[in-house]
Specification:
By secondary structure, this protein is of the alpha+beta class. The chain has helices at 2-28, 34-41, 51-58; strands at residues 63-69, 72-78, 84-88, 91-96. Helix 2 runs parallel beside helix 3. The protein is elongated, with a radius of gyration of 17 Å. The N and C termini lie far apart (40 Å).
């Protein structure tokens, strides 16, 4: 029984490592600034990042809310741990980490 758990843990660790290597390769392949790439590799979100970049850093949000007031339209992504990002014109304007 113990050997099975150790094997399963090893398999899951290997899958996670491969997924993270693929994520890093995808980041490196983009034509983004080194500041953005460095932040993404550390899973840090910065003001000015796009929707795509935020998803590469933090993954899919737990909740999405859209707001509109007159001509103003924004989208806020909510994540666990109280993290959120508000986008205007698909660019991060406020980040709470």
């Amino acid at each position: 029984m113990r050997k099975v758990r150790e094997d399963e843990l090893k398999r899951l660790e290997d899958e996670h490592r491969r997924a993270e290597e693929t994520r890093i390769q995808q980041i490196d392949a983009q034509d983004w600034s080194e500041e953005i790439k460095s932040a993404l590799k550390k899973r840090v979100v910065l003001v000015g990042m796009t929707l795509e970049q935020v998803k590469m850093a933090w993954g899919r949000p737990d909740d999405i809310r859209m707001y509109q007031s007159g001509n103003y339209f924004s989208v806020t992504y909510y994540y666990s741990g109280g993290r959120s990002v508000t986008f205007v014109n698909n660019v991060a304007q406020t980040v709470f980490q």
